[in-house]
Design goal:
- By secondary structure, this protein is mostly helical.
- It has two domains: 5-71, Rna Polymerase Sigma Factor, Chain: A (Orthogonal Bundle); 95-162, Arc Repressor Mutant, subunit A, CATH 1.10.10.10.
- It is 82% helix and 0% strand.
- It has helices at 5-24, 28-45, 51-88, 96-107, 111-122, 127-134, 138-162.
- The longest helix has 38 residues, at 51-88.
- The N and C termini lie far apart (59 Å).
Length: 163
């Protein structure tokens, strides 16, 4: 299999960017997704950059995607916190300890769970809409939401006991 020199430069830059993103704070799966998005964007742009301009362009696009991902995740966490404050009381009424427990419980959620809660509670999507988005059954959405609420409750109680 012959790889052209341009492709070798591209692959070297891509692996370097992936390592840099992981070092910067992205988890490995997100770093791979970002790098893949960058390559797709390069292909879709249908341009051939000079080797000396390729690396800066790849970094710029990758960092832009990483910052977008970071801001989106930060927004989801803020929305979840706000939504759960509505359940447990207004933020001014919640003592610092309860807020800390909620933050700890929310940090344990994975991307699917965050998306599920954000769609259901913040975007007011129906179970049917969520099932269509994730292409899963409505029963699975209901079950996952129930388990998620139970998980958050359990983790908050555990954080309360370990205090």
């Amino acid at each position: 299999m012959n790889i052209s020199p341009y492709e070798q430069i591209l692959m070297t830059c891509v692996s370097e960017i992936q390592r840099y993103l992981i070092k910067t704070g992205a988890n490995p799966a997100d770093a791979q997704d970002i790098v893949q998005d960058v390559l797709v964007k390069l292909i879709q742009a249908d341009i051939v950059l000079a080797p000396d301009k390729l690396r800066p362009w790849l970094y710029r696009v990758a960092l832009s995607r990483f910052y977008d991902l970071y801001r989106r995740e930060k927004r989801y966490r803020a929305l979840l916190s706000e939504r759960f404050y509505l359940i447990y009381g207004h933020p001014d009424q919640i003592d610092d300890e309860r807020g800390w427990q909620l933050e700890q419980a929310l940090q344990a959620l994975n991307d699917y769970q965050i998306g599920l809660v954000a769609l259901y509670y913040e975007d007011d999507k129906s179970v049917k809409d969520i099932s269509e988005i994730y292409q899963i059954s409505e029963a699975k959405v209901k079950t996952d939401l129930y388990r998620l609420r139970q998980q958050l409750k359990k983790e908050m109680e555990q954080n309360d006991e370990t205090k």
